[in-house]
């Protein structure tokens, strides 16, 4: 494992996508990785694995994305995938209030079971189905509509989860928050960039360190994982640095 | 005593069915009938009935010649293939295999689990056949020159062959199997009798057979061949999948489909087709090289056994669709989401035709197996199947997949998938240690890669053509194929995988491998032949040669090994998730408490389901036993997959708790929720004591295991308070509680921690209409509930009293960690008086519903009662005292003379009635407070005030009521022994030991009666039975009102009942038990006596003179209570 010295430091970040079925997890990834959108995407069995680089001013982050299956019964497989994840995208469908509830469950699960210090972003997808799909972004600060008022938008707005509601929840839990559209690309790269920025430098540095020896310890079981980055060590990813 | 407890434990291990079905892996060997069904791929309805060694001769098809001479027949028999093996007969099938098998129930377990062979019980191994009896056209008994028993079987092979124009003509070719039975003449005769019987039964199924066979492409194929010979035109082929419309995947020429078809055509012509197919050595080879497209579906169906499922109920698919047409379900929603995204690369699934088929198959299956419903990946598998088979065929094959080949894969917890991943990992570790080490080192989680392989049968991992080749073998040889192929993939890519250091690299190595499966495995080889070998062929060779050691057995073994840990993981995940999602109310309870609640809740549900299952099976078994001969009834209770059902980790488990479950749940948690008079088993024994002693243990065992509460568990009480609690918690009004309901309910009781909340809660429980008022009835019910809740002593530290010094010696022996026995006892007594005061005060401060019912009257009545205690003489009490005397000879020394105080505490509401009658009779005073014609009520503030006026009650609401729900800890030993002892006083010593602690192993001494504990037993009884007396009195309230005087004469014969109740349990038990019991009783009696003497000043005589208004129901033990109660009241009054 040669320490390649790259002009800009590069590190891998494991990211896991969680959320109810058909909220658009895979589509978000597809948009981010291939800048593409498919109307009929095969359901994810178990999980799909993709990678994509994200260039920050000071460094390059290589996302190793685990896109998980959303069907409820696959939930018990999830620990396998969020194991060692440094970041997570918890996705809900902002036209479907139940999906936010499910998202909250995932957040709780991650906060308790995943690596400590995991960076979690809450993402409301399918912004294209609402009126403000024009890419107003996540900073809908003045959105004063209350929960009660939501049902009243009958001007073709399918939104059922208000920005304010989700946002206040995200703030409470200390999550990044975005509303996105995988279909027209709104905010998708922003999500990943924000995550990349939020990953603490220290955990990235750790990745270059002793790596292999720690990773075998990691293997034993999830419970007492201390080092966030354990296995993200090896030479192979050094290649991506340039 | 020691004998006793050890006996109890022993008995439990015999009796407790749940203990028997767990644990040792050897217990988990699948039942023989299961092995049998798996081996021959038979439906679950089949059991192995007969088995005999036989030699079969498969003659090449011969022209039909009814007039053939004997000599010719003999000659036929000598030609053809000979196989030796075992011939099996089930209800509707005749099966033969050359592999050593033994599934007869009489065979020992070792033979059934130890047999080996190519498929190891997972598929039709060896050469042979699985022949539905309805497919047998004729059986002749051959005269054999070798004095052997020989049968010639003619099948309905080519049933549909008969040309339409001359139906009379018999098929040109007949399939004939000759069987020589080896065995004693008797055995042979018996087998033939069985066969005859089966054949008769099979006649009716010929219609089904025709229908099923008509859908098989082989029929068409062979018919077609004949017709071509005859120069006739084509008929319409049966549906062989979407491939007929949209082309089959892959290149026909490359697949050499035509020559495969020809080979298969020959095979089928010679050795039977679909149901009559005989497995010859070439059969396996033909499958390994890949099936021809049009026959693929049918052979899958045949080898997997789904054909037989279809034969059993050919219309099931259509019927199911018709039955549920237009109905909606979660599964259907999920299916709809995925229809457009199942094998989208195959043109058939971009067309409405293909999507429609997929929808129908998935939907129909989701209805027939609602537990599984729909799982993503099923869409992909079914889509693949539909390319080669009709909807109905795919439907049955999906059933076979889910139920048998991939057990638990698609269940709601997907435990099968996770389990097989574990198995796979352990196989990798075993077979490729270096690669495994590398994976561990670089922290690559193998299952991340391999899970989709298994879950979707390689269909979306490999190119379709190759995935189908894997499926060909998979359906024949069973799930081990998935493992073999998986291992081979890793082995072949081993070098490259060793270079991959993270998940990403690992995945990409395999991805590129899969994409190059059709390329040459040795592109640089000089040898042209070697060059021609594709990577896929190499894969198959490695899989089945190099990993031939991977057998169904080794996989089963590994599954057993990992099963528990996988299930535990799933369950702890489910638990975690479910606890986390319990909502805001749950925050009032600690996480530990929630965890224990969860365990308790699902524990109760699980056990109840187990029990009902076992009871059902038992009942069925007994029914069968009644009908049939004993020999046919032996089918095991021990078919694990059945019995283990309901475990959370295995998939959908019950989530709703009905009232009975709730009672059981409470009984596991709160002492007061355990009944004092376990009924069912006791009654059972009462009614047929003789039977038990004659039949001894085995019968008894069944008897006990049929108890609806399970053997090792205490029978829960059934009290109005519990009903109220249930209704209160049942916020959704569906007469069942979810975990959420239970947690919320408990959170409100335990979580508040302030006395006001707890008082309010209690009040609201009894405020039926929610108007903030509790009427007289309610007050009485509250007091009754207070007694009910306190009858086993109170939790927490109520202010101890100082007087009971005499008990200290007993305390020394008493393991009770939190409260000394004596104090507890004393507190109990004091609590009784508190409750009595409570009633009195309630009435005192009650608001009349009508202004004219004034409070003073209440007081008047009270004073009335007080004024002439002797003359009222409270019937019950004196009566009770007498009973008490009968039981414990020494003077029951609670000294206070019972008096006619209006509100007798223990009797709660009953006391009221009694009181009322008394006062009416003697004082004629208008007892307004107790007069039902003058309604009154208390409000919450009043209630609160009354409670707070009494120290004990205050403490009760503050601490002991909430604390009586012991969520986390098991009930501690003394509690159990106390309940035990209290029960022993009653009729059912046998039951008293069944405390939950026992089954959990909490205390070993449940059977031992600590010396001090008798006292508490007495007290407990007093309280309980006071209530019972009260209830009885209340029942007779109206009478009592009218004919007061008569009451005094009622003197029950309860003693006898009591004796009976006491003795009966002894009868069935063995000697040991009996002796222990009497010992126990002696001890108890002694303790009782001592308890009495400790307590009292007064003599028997005094008590005896009291008139009796006695409740008829009570027995000696019970009837004591009111007297104590009343005596306490007096104490209080003074």
List keywords for this structure.
heterodimer; A: 242 residues; alpha/beta; Rossmann fold; 6-stranded mixed sheet; 7 helices; 19% strand; disordered C terminus; B: 1134 residues; mainly alpha; 8-stranded antiparallel sheet; 55 helices; 58% helix; elongated; disordered N terminus
Shape of chain B: elongated
Number of strands of chain A: 6
Shape of chain A: globular
Strand residue percentage of chain B = 5-15%
Strand order of the largest sheet of chain A: 2-3-1-4-5-6
Helix coverage percent of chain B = 55-70%
CATH architecture of the domain at 8-130 and 158-202 in chain A: 3-Layer(aba) Sandwich
Q: With helices defined by DSSP (H or I, 4 residues minimum), what is the helix count of chain A? A: 7
Radius of gyration of chain A: 18 Å
Mean of residue pLDDT of chain B? 69
The CATH topology name of the domain at 8-130 and 158-202 in chain A reads Rossmann fold
CATH class group of the domain at 8-130 and 158-202 in chain A: Alpha Beta
Helical content of chain A stands at 25-40%
Order of helices and strands of chain A: EHEEHEHEHEHHH
Largest interface: A-B, 45 and 47 residues
Work out the radius of gyration of chain B. 38 Å
* Distance between the amino and carboxyl termini of chain A: 17 Å
Which oligomeric form is depicted? heterodimer
The unreliable regions of chain B are 1-28, 105-122, 162-171, 630-643, 680-705, 797-822, 852-929, 970-1016, 1051-1134
Which strand order spans the largest sheet of chain B, edge to edge or round the barrel? 6-7-9-1-3-4-5-10
Structure in words:
With 242 residues, chain A is α/β, with parallel strands linked by helices. Chain A has helices at residues 25-34, 78-82, 97-113, 163-173, 188-198, 201-208, 212-220; strands at residues 10-19, 47-55, 60-68, 87-93, 119-125, 176-179. A 6-stranded mixed sheet of chain A has the order 2-3-1-4-5-6, with helices on both faces. In chain A, 50% of the residues are buried. Chain B has 1134 residues and is mainly alpha-helical. In chain B, the strands form 3 sheets. In chain B, strands 6-7-9-1-3-4-5-10 form an 8-stranded antiparallel sheet. A 3-stranded antiparallel sheet of chain B has the order 11-13-12. A two-stranded antiparallel sheet of chain B has the order 2-8. The longest helix of chain B is centred in the middle third of the chain and has 37 residues, at 591-627. The two termini of chain B are 43 Å apart. In chain B, 52% of the residues are buried. Chains A and B meet through strand 2, helix 2, helix 3 and helix 7 of A and helix 16, helix 20, helix 22, helix 26 and helix 29 of B.
């Amino acid at each position: 494992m040669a320490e390649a010295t790259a002009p800009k430091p590069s590190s891998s970040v494991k990211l896991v996508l969680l959320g109810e079925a058909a909220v658009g997890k895979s589509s978000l990834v597809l948009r981010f990785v291939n800048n593409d959108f498919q109307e009929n995407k095969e359901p994810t069995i178990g999980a799909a694995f993709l990678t994509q680089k994200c260039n920050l001013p000071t460094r390059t982050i290589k996302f190793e994305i685990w896109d998980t299956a959303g069907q409820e019964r696959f939930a018990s497989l999830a620990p396998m995938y969020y194991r060692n994840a440094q970041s997570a995208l918890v996705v809900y469908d902002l036209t479907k209030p139940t999906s936010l509830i499910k998202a909250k469950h995932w957040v709780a699960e991650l906060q308790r079971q995943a690596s400590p210090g995991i960076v979690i972003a809450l993402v409301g997808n399918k912004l294209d189905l609402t009126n403000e799909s024009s890419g107003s972004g996540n900073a809908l600060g003045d959105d004063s509509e209350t929960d009660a008022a939501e049902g009243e938008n009958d001007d073709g707005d399918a939104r059922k989860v208000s920005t304010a509601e989700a946002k206040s929840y995200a703030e409470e839990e200390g999550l990044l928050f975005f509303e996105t559209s995988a279909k027209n690309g709104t905010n998708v790269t922003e999500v990943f960039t924000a995550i990349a920025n939020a990953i603490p430098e220290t955990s990235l540095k750790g990745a270059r360190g002793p790596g292999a020896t720690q990773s075998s310890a990691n293997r034993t079981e999830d419970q007492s994982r201390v080092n966030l980055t354990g296995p993200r060590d090896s030479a192979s990813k050094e290649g991506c640095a340039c | 005593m020691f004998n006793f407890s050890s006996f109890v434990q022993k008995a439990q291990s015999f009796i407790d069915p749940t203990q028997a079905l767990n644990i040792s892996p050897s217990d988990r060997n699948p039942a023989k009938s299961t092995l049998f069904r798996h081996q021959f791929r038979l439906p679950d309805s089949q059991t192995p009935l007969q088995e005999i060694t036989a030699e079969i001769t498969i003659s090449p098809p011969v022209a039909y010649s009814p007039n053939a001479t004997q000599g010719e027949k003999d000659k036929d028999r000598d030609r053809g293939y000979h196989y030796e093996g075992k011939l099996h007969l089930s209800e509707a099938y005749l099966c033969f295999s050359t592999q050593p098998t033994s599934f007869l129930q009489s065979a020992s377990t070792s033979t059934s689990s130890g047999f080996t062979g190519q498929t190891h019980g997972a598929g039709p191994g060896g050469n042979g056949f699985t022949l539905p009896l309805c497919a047998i056209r004729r059986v002749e008994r051959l005269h054999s020159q070798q004095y052997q028993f020989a049968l010639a079987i003619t099948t309905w092979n080519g049933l549909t062959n008969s040309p339409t124009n001359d139906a009379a003509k018999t098929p040109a070719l007949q399939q004939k199997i000759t069987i020589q039975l080896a065995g004693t003449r008797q055995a042979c005769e018996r087998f033939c009798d069985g066969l005859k019987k089966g054949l008769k039964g099979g006649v009716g199924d010929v219609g089904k057979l025709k229908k099923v066979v008509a859908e098989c492409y082989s029929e068409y194929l062979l018919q077609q061949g004949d017709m071509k010979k005859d120069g006739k035109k084509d008929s319409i082929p049966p549906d062989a999948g979407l491939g007929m419309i949209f082309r089959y995947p892959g290149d026909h020429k490359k697949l050499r489909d035509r020559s495969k078809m020809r080979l298969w055509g020959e095979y089928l012509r010679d050795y039977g087709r679909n149901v009559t197919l005989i497995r010859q050595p070439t059969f396996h080879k033909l499958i390994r090289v890949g099936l021809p497209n049009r026959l693929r579906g049918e052979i899958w169906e045949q080898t997997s056994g789904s054909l037989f499922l279809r034969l059993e109920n050919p219309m099931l698919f259509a019927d199911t669709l018709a039955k549920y047409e237009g109905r909606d379900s979660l599964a259907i929603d999920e299916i709809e989401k995925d229809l457009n995204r199942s094998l989208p690369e195959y043109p058939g699934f971009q067309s409405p035709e293909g999507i429609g088929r997929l929808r129908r198959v998935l939907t129909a299956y989701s209805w027939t197996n609602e537990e599984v419903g729909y799982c993503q990946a099923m869409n992909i598998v079914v889509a693949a199947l539909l390319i080669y088979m009709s909807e109905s065929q795919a439907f049955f094959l999906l059933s076979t997949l889910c139920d048998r080949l991939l057990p638990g894969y698609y269940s709601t917890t997907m435990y099968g998938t996770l389990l097989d991943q574990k198995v796979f990992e352990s196989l990798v570790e075993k077979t490729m240690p270096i690669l495994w080490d590398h994976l561990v080192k670089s922290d690559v989680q193998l299952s991340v890669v391999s899970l989709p392989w298994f879950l979707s049968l390689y269909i979306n991992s490999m190119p379709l053509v190759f995935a189908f080749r894997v499926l060909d073998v998979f359906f024949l040889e069973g799930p081990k194929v998935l493992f073999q192929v998986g291992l081979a993939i890793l082995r072949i890519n081993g070098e490259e995988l060793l270079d991959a250091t993270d998940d990403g690299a690992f995945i990409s190595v395999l991805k590129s491998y899969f994409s190059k499966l059709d390329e040459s495995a040795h592109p640089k080889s000089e040898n042209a032949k070697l060059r021609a070998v594709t990577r896929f062929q190499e894969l198959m060779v490695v899989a089945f040669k190099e990993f031939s050691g991977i057998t169904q057995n080794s996989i089963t073994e590994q599954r057993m090994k990992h099963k528990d840990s996988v299930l535990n993981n799933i369950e702890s995940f489910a638990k975690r998730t479910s606890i986390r999602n319990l909502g805001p109310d749950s925050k009032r309870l600690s996480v530990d408490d929630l965890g224990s609640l969860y365990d308790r809740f699902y524990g109760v549900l699980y056990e109840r389901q187990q029990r009902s299952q076992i009871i059902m099976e038992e009942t069925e078994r007994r029914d069968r036993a009644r009908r049939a001969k004993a020999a046919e009834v032996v089918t095991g209770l021990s078919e694990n997959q059945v019995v283990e059902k309901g475990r959370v980790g295995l998939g959908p488990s019950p989530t709703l708790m009905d009232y009975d479950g709730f009672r059981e749940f409470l009984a596991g948690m709160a002492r007061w929720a355990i009944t004092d008079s376990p009924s069912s088993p006791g009654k059972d024994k009462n009614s047929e004591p003789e039977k038990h002693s004659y039949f001894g243990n085995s019968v008894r065992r069944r008897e006990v295991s049929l108890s609806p509460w399970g053997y090792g568990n205490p029978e829960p009480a059934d009290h109005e308070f519990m009903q109220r609690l249930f209704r209160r918690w049942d916020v959704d009004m569906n007469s069942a509680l979810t975990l959420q309901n239970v947690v919320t309910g408990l959170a409100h009781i335990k979580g508040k921690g302030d006395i006001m909340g707890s008082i309010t809660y209690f009040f609201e429980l009894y405020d039926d209409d929610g108007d903030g008022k509790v009427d007289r009835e309610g007050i009485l019910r509250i007091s009754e509930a207070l007694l009910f809740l306190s009858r086993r002593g109170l939790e927490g530290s109520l202010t101890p009293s100082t007087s009971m010094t005499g008990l200290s010696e007993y305390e020394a022996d008493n393991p009770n960690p939190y409260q000394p026995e004596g104090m507890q006892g004393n507190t109990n007594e004091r609590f009784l008086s508190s409750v009595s005061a409570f009633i009195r005060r309630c009435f005192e401060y009650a608001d009349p519903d009508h202004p004219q019912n004034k409070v003073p009257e209440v007081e008047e009545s009270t004073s009335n009662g007080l004024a002439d205690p002797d003359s009222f003489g409270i019937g019950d009490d004196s009566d009770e005292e007498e009973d008490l005397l009968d039981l414990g000879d020494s003077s029951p020394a609670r000294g206070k003379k019972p008096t006619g105080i209006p509100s007798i505490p223990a009797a709660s509401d009953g006391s009221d009635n009694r009181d009322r009658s008394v006062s009416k009779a003697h004082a004629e005073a208008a007892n307004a407070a107790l007069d039902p014609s003058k309604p009154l009520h208390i409000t919450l503030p009043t209630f609160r005030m009354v409670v707070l006026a009494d120290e004990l009650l205050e403490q009760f609401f503050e601490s002991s009521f909430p604390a009586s729900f012991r969520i986390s800890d098991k009930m501690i030993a003394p509690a159990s022994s106390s309940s035990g002892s209290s029960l022993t006083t009653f009729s059912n010593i046998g039951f008293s030991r069944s405390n939950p602690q026992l089954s959990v192993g909490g205390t070993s001494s449940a059977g031992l009666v600590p010396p001090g504990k008798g006292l508490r037993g007495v007290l407990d009884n007093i309280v309980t039975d006071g209530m019972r007396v009260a209830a009885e009195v209340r029942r007779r309230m109206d009478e009592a009102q009218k004919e007061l005087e008569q009451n005094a004469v009622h003197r029950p014969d309860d003693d006898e009942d009591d004796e009976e109740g006491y003795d009966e349990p002894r009868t069935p038990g063995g000697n040991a038990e009996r002796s222990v019991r009497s010992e126990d009783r002696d001890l108890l009696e002694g303790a009782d006596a001592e308890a009495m003497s400790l307590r009292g000043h007064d003599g028997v005589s005094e008590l005896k003179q009291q008139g009796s208004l006695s409740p008829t129901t009570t027995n000696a033990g019970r009837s004591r209570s009111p007297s104590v109660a009343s005596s306490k009241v007096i104490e209080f009054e003074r």
